[in-house]
Write a structure and sequence with these properties.
The structure holds 2 protein chains of 2 kinds. In chain A, 37% of the residues lie in helices and 17% in strands. By secondary structure, chain A is of the alpha+beta class. Among the domains of chain A are: 193 residues, Penicillin-binding protein 2a (Domain 2) (Alpha-Beta Complex); 167 residues, Beta-lactamase (3-Layer(aba) Sandwich). Chain B contains 15 helices and 3 strands. The chains are: A alpha+beta, B mainly alpha.
Chain lengths: 646, 379
């Protein structure tokens, strides 16, 4: 085997190396040029794109929540304001994934800052927010709770105490059913609000003025650009990174000036104290609601603070139903308060001679029937004309009158007064009540046997029993219609709106279609009857006693449960089966300034319980104003809104 | 004018004095100048990228001290004869240390790379960066070029052993760089062009077959490696942030210590592997081009010095050092600017940390020694 020995040829090797070296050098130059070309592409051609990305990287937009508008009474007394409060907030991004959130919440339960039963709701709320948003888990910590958290603070990442403005109601439960309340934004709220507008806001109006005027009260959210590092933490350094960090201030919500007079409101609530009932007082000249009370009440501050499930259940399941707004949603038989309207119907249809006395023997026999309709508590009245029948609330007189007019005609006549329909008040939740008629009955019942309107039902209609249902607000509105002789205005709680610039905007008065076809003479007859009620009639010793102005009123007793005459008069009747007590009135009778409806559930005879409350309310409005104190309708300067804190 | 003449002559005399000192130290003037410029830039940028961290600067300075000492020592005292003698010893030592590391090594950043020998911790793979090309050059020194098939097999084996050991650590990036430095020697040794051309379809076929037999998750890994943008929160995050940093720098940059991507910590590993993006953000296109030009000068000068080599060992070692340096530059700048996959390779002589500066300057020391001692060898 021949082995070829290769001899090193130094010259050739050097040449090979030189050629390869030069080739390599050229390749090096080309590849470096490639990198340079790539840099040119990034830094020159796509500079704008990357500059924007780097800007977006370091600037985060933080919302500035607007300060919620105040709610004031007509004299400028603050009913709802904003105060700084400490609340516990959680940032999902910092806590971690779901197990970590569960652990943190469980930890908060173990140090007794949260209740176990509230966890599902809180967790839902946390998960419905964006991961970098700070979600409140407990509102309005007290000092003891803050101390307890401070002790365990090191155990938490992403959970901390923050100062926020929160809603405060200085009078607590007073007027809660008119003002409403705010509470934490719920999942269902999130689906209907603009989440950008509510970024950084924790509370939203529920019910009452807070709920209905949410849009005005909330204001407009602002934002602030914040320099952040890669971990998302705000950093101080600015300078060349971002020379102009924009801040766009929020615009505070509008302040609402209500028609409510806090002094009248308090008088109404003192009158209702310890009872279940409602008072609504309206200025008949423009529809302003001067007082709107429903008892029992609850403290709206609890909702702003956040109720635990058990606290809420306690309110919800209370047999006295404090959460029920009886003024708007409580539907009751009207009782005798309907009589002035029935009288007007008879007069307008020319079916009654107001001066012809009818004999009242304490019992009414429907012609062609064996049914007997009994007089109420007042016993037998003897002969009396229309005026006295109203004043003394003679049932027998009105049984007969109603039978004469007929149910359908009564219903047609009553509708323009507002029976059976919404008054259109500017807060939500109102119930329309029920104005029955033969026509209505045909539609409302399925079985043919139930669709028949019985003559006996017409008789009951005349004294406000049977199917008829009214709310206290409706009856206050009816009183206002009577006061203004058929004219009326849509009731409203908010009279003036004051925007963030300090500009006052009066809310326009909405005029309803008037009651037509009633002659002045007929109005006079009914007015006399109602004045009679407070001078010599059913309310003479309660509403009318010692009044320095004339009051036109009407008592009412709504039957809750049909019991025999003998039983009804005894105290053995269970408390909650007793009749509801009504009183409607307006005053001064000659030039009315206030129309009132008072309802006391199971209060018994109307004049005994309801009438004195109405009298006090009217006194508070008319007499105080007559003394000349704060008569001006222009609200005084409004306290400035505290600026939002973060 | 007298004063002008005076200053001119003085300037010339200083230069000559500088040149004389360099010659006495066996150092190359142009190369030393370019290296000094790059290192000066390194200190400037590391100070900014580390968030003005003086600890880091102190460490960096210590590294530089060791590295410069090593370079000067090797340039002056490690003559070509010693180097040729030392090459196989260093290679063997490196292999032993790699095996030791693989079994007992200190775990850093999830991989066993570090060897702790009491007073100093270092990565044996760094030795291999120099030992592999040197041992290949040593092997070819006595043999005729181009390499025969048998030579080729032995060279491939010499490269494959340390590469496999480093892959096992696992440190794929370094392994590839070391394999590349060995391949450079083979190419410079005159590997026949037809073999180079023939190997292309073979490699492509192997890649296709490999892809075909891979599991889905393995393919996914390869895809993420090749296109990190698909994984914006994982590997992709680095490269996306790095491109934002470079692109937002524009032509002139945002200014020294004013790069928001770097200063606000959006850019990861900003003082080490991604420092080139900091240069791009703060000094713009001009700054990065200056750096690339300096690198080009260093590589060009090094190649030129290698070509002047008077024996095979000197030429092959010099060429491998020059071109390996280029590979580091290209892989890092390509990765940072988004044209190459993300491999953990620092920007040579500029990135902070590790022992890479020592290895690199030691390499240039070898190059200078081979170059300055060439007349002593005689032909």
């Amino acid at each position: 085997m021949v082995r070829r020995v290769r001899i090193k040829d130094h010259y050739a090797e050097q040449r090979i190396f030189s050629i390869r070296g030069i080739v390599a050098g050229v390749a090096v130059a080309l590849l470096l040029l490639t990198v340079a070309g790539r840099l040119f592409y990034l830094q020159v051609l796509r500079h704008a794109y990357y500059a924007e990305l780097s800007q977006g990287n370091r600037v985060r937009i933080d919302p500035i929540p607007p300060s919620r508008g105040l709610i004031l009474d007509r004299r400028g007394v603050v009913l709802a304001e904003n105060l700084p409060a400490f609340q516990l907030e959680l940032v999902r991004e910092q806590v971690g994934r779901e197990p970590a959130i569960d652990a943190a919440l469980a930890q908060l339960v173990s140090i007794k800052l949260l209740e176990k039963e509230d966890l599902p709701g809180i967790k839902r709320s946390i998960l419905s927010h964006k991961i970098y948003e700070s979600v409140p888990v407990k509102l309005q910590l007290n000092e003891e709770e803050m101390a307890r958290f401070a002790l365990h603070r090191h155990e938490f990442i992403g959970v901390d105490i923050r100062t926020r403005l929160t809603r405060h109601y200085p009078f607590g439960p007073v007027a809660v059913h008119a003002i409403g309340y705010v509470s934490a934004i719920s999942e269902s709220d999130l689906s209907r609000i603009d989440s950008a507008e509510y970024a950084g806001t924790t509370l939203i109006g529920k019910l009452g003025v807070e709920g209905s005027y949410e849009h005005d009260l909330h204001g407009t959210a602002g934002y602030r650009q914040v320099l952040v590092n890669a971990a998302g933490r705000p950093v101080e350094r600015q300078g060349a990174f971002t020379p102009h960090l924009e801040t766009h201030p929020s615009v505070a919500g509008s302040d609402l000036i209500l028609g409510i007079d806090m002094r009248v409101q308090r008088v109404a609530e003192e009158g209702l104290a310890g009872k279940r009932g409602a008072v609504v007082a309206i200025d008949p000249r423009n529809g302003d609601v001067v007082a709107l009370a429903s008892t029992p009440e609850f403290d709206p501050n609890g909702f702003a603070r956040g109720l635990s499930v058990s606290q809420f259940n306690a309110l919800q399941n209370d047999i006295d139903k404090p959460l029920l707004n009886r003024a708007l949603r409580g539907a009751y038989p009207s009782g005798s308060t309907i009589k002035p309207a029935i009288a007007l119907a008879g007069l307008t249809y020319h079916l009654v001679n107001p001066n012809k006395p009818e004999f009242c023997a304490g019992v009414f026999h429907l012609p062609g029937s064996r049914l007997q309709f009994r007089e109420g508590k007042t016993g037998r009245h003897g002969y009396m004309d229309l005026e006295h029948a109203i004043a003394k609330s003679c049932d027998v007189y009105f049984y007969g009158l109603a039978a004469t007019i007929g149910a359908q005609r009564i219903a047609d006549f009553l509708a323009p007064f507002g029976y059976g329909r919404l008054t259109g008040i500017d807060i939500g939740g109102e119930k329309p009540g029920l104005l029955p008629s033969p026509e209505w009955k045909k539609k409302a019942f399925k079985r043919a046997a139930d669709q028949v309107w019985f003559p006996g039902e017409t008789v009951n209609f005349g004294v406000g029993q049977g199917y008829l249902l009214v709310t206290p607000l409706q009856l206050a509105h009816v009183a206002a219609v009577l006061a203004e002789r058929g004219k009326s205005y849509r009731p409203r709680l908010v009279a003036t709106v004051r925007d963030a610039t300090g500009h006052f905007e009066k809310v326009a008065v909405v005029t309803n279609p008037p009651v037509q076809g009633v002659s002045e003479a007929d109005w006079d007859i009914v007015l006399k009857g109602m004045i009679g009620a407070t001078t010599y009639g059913t309310a003479a010793y309660t509403a009318g006693k010692g009044a320095s102005y004339t009051i036109a009123g009407k008592t009412g007793t709504a039957q809750v449960f049909t019991v025999s005459r003998a039983e009804r008069l005894t105290d053995k009747v269970s408390e909650r089966l007793k009749d509801h007590s009504w009183f409607i009135a307006y005053a001064p009778a000659e030039a009315p300034e206030i129309a009132v409806a008072v309802l006391v559930e199971n209060g018994g005879f109307g004049s005994a319980v309801a009438a004195p409350i109405a009298r006090k309310v009217m006194d508070a409005w008319i007499l105080d104003r007559d003394r000349g104190a704060a008569r001006s309708t222009v609200p005084p300067p409004v306290p400035p809104n505290p600026s939002p804190k973060t | 004018m007298i004063s002008d003449d005076f200053s001119e002559s003085r300037a010339r005399r200083t230069l000559t004095a500088g040149g004389r000192i360099l010659r006495a130290l066996s150092m190359d003037g142009p190369l030393t100048g370019a290296l000094a410029a790059i290192i000066a830039i390194s200190f400037l940028v590391v100070y900014s990228a580390s968030g003005q961290n003086l600890n880091v600067m102190e460490h960096h300075l210590a590294n530089l001290g060791v590295a410069v000492t090593a370079m000067m020592f090797i340039a002056r005292f490690a003559t070509p004869q010693y180097l040729r003698l030392f090459a196989p010893i260093a290679y063997a030592l490196g292999i032993v240390l790699l095996i030791v590391v693989d079994f007992t090594g200190h775990v850093g950043k999830g991989a066993q790379r570090w060897l702790d020998i009491g007073f100093i911790r270092f990565q044996p793979s760094e030795i291999m960066k120099l030992a592999v090309p040197m041992v290949c050059a040593w092997y070819m020194h006595e043999r005729a070029q181009p390499p025969t098939f048998k030579d080729l097999l032995i060279l491939v084996l010499l490269i494959a052993i340390p590469t496999a050991l480093i892959v096992k650590q696992p440190d794929l990036g370094t392994a590839l760089l070391i394999a590349t430095s060995g391949l450079i020697v083979i190419l410079l040794a005159g590997l026949q062009v037809w073999i180079i051309l023939a190997s292309i379809p073979v490699i492509a076929g192997a890649a296709w077959a490999g892809w075909h037999f891979m599991h889905e998750y393995q393919r996914q890994r390869v895809l993420t490696f090749l296109n990190p943008q698909n994984d914006p929160l994982g590997t992709g995050y680095h490269i996306i942030q790095s491109q934002i940093a470079i692109g937002s720098g524009g032509v002139f940059g945002k200014g020294y210590m004013n790069g928001s991507q770097a200063q606000l910590e959006f850019l990861p590993e900003r003082s080490t592997d991604f420092i080139f993006a900091v240069i791009g953000e703060e000094f713009g296109l001009l700054g990065q081009l200056l750096v690339l030009i300096l690198y080009g000068l260093i590589i060009g000068r090094a190649l030129y010095m290698a070509m002047q080599g008077q024996d095979t060992f000197a030429r092959l070692t010099g060429g491998a050092i020059a071109l390996s340096f280029f590979v580091y530059v290209f892989v890092n700048s390509g990765m940072v600017s988004g044209i190459l996959p993300v491999v953990g390779v620092p920007l040579p002589l500029i990135s902070y940390g590790g022992t890479s500066m020592v290895t690199l300057l030691a390499g240039f020391g070898i190059l200078m020694s081979l170059h300055s001692h060439r007349k002593l060898v005689g032909s």
